[in-house]
Amino acid sequence: MNMMKLMKQAQAMQANMQKLQEDLAQREYSFSAGGGAVTAVAGGDMTIKNITVSPEVIDPSDADMLQDLILSAVNGALSTARESAAAEMGKVTGGMNIPGL
Predict the structure, then answer these.
(1) With 0-12 CB in 10 A as exposed, 13-18 as middle and 19+ as buried, what is 69?
(2) On the CB side of 28, how many CA atoms lie within 13 Å of its CA?
(3) Nearest of 87, 15, 76, 82 to residue 41 by alpha carbon
(4) What are the φ and ψ backbone dihedral angles of 100, each rounded to 5 degrees?
(5) Alpha helices (H) along the chain
(6) Which of 15, 35, 43, 63 is the most interior residue, by most CB within 10 Å?
(7) Distance from C-alpha of 99 to C-alpha of 15, rounded to nearest angstrom
(8) What does the alpha-carbon distance between residue 56 and residue 78 come to, in Å, rounded to a whole number?
(9) Per-residue pLDDT tens listing for the chain (101 residues)
């Protein structure tokens, strides 16, 4: 009887995780670098949806600075998305350490 209960709980958790993954894929997380000079938007599915660069920071003689700002914004947006996804998954799994989640 306990095995049946455990199986039902696992199936419910799996359904909840699937729904959460679909929900997370629709979310967007933004991060700005350089005082808002560059903003990156990442989806909950860990894809970059948009990058906005302020014209004031486009200096052909200093491409390195712009590249650094873009990397910082992209990494920040992805980090925010990952942290949010991990927190939401933790709610569904009850803090269980399930590999791959």
Answers:
(1) buried
(2) 8
(3) 76
(4) 90, 0
(5) 2-26, 63-93
(6) 43
(7) 17
(8) 25
(9) 588 888 888 888 888 888 888 888 899 999 999 999 999 999 988 999 999 999 999 999 999 999 999 999 999 999 999 999 888 888 877 756 555 54
Burial class (CB in 10 A: 0-12, 13-18, 19+), 20: middle
What CATH number should be reported for the domain whose range is 2-93? 3.30.1310.10
Report DSSP state, residue 46. S
**Is the full-model pTM beyond 0.90?**
no
Phi, psi of 59 (to 5 degrees): -125, 105
At 3, which amino acid appears?
Answer: M
Separation of alpha carbons 10 and 21, rounded Å: 16
Residue 76 tokens, joined: 């920040």
